Amino acid sequence: MKAIHTLALFNSLLLLQACSTVTPDYNRESYAFVSYASETSIGYYSGEHCEDIDIDHVVSLADAHESGASLWSDAEKAQFANDRNNHAPACASINRSKGSSTPSDFLRKSSDGAGIEFSFVDFCGYVARYVEVKKAYELSFENNDEVLESCG
């Protein structure tokens, strides 16, 4: 009888673990991003010349982590982090203001005084890339809102 009770307890713990919605802590280093020099000085988001260019992740590593990448192996995380289809040259100040924002938060930060204020050269083009990357990697859209729909 004790063995059955132990097995039932073990199965219950496995079920609880499988149903858990707690995402493991985000650790940027586990994504093993290798940066590189941009071939342009024009920022993807602003369309303007930038003194300093960063390589930005269109879908940030933290956003991906919260959207399902936390379950990936380190090799899969590195593949995502270094996929140039998810990279855009960005003015360093805009990239740092964007941080790990989703499109709606990034749009808000671009004009509310809380972030670097600028005008998007093609916000819906950025959203289309964001959606394309998330779909390609089968990432969740749960943390996104109506701004994705507004670009159609």
What does the model show?
The chain is mainly alpha-helical. It has a domain at 53-152. Helices cover 42% and strands 7% of the residues. The protein contains seven helices and two strands; from the N terminus they run αβααβαααα. The protein has helices spanning 2-19, 61-66, 74-81, 92-98, 103-109, 123-136, 147-150, and strands spanning 53-57, 87-91. A two-stranded antiparallel sheet has the order 1-2.
Assembly state: single chain
Structural class: mainly alpha
Contiguous helical run count: 7
Helix content: 40-55%
Ends: how far apart? Answer: 60 Å
Outline type: globular
Biggest sheet, in brief? 2 strands, antiparallel
The number of E-state strands comes to 2
How are strands sequenced across the largest beta sheet?
Answer: 1-2
Unreliable runs: 5-19
Q: Give, in order, the helices and strands.
A: HEHHEHHHH
Question: How many whole angstroms does the radius of gyration measure?
Answer: 19 Å
- Rounded average pLDDT: 86
Proportion of strand residues? 5-15%
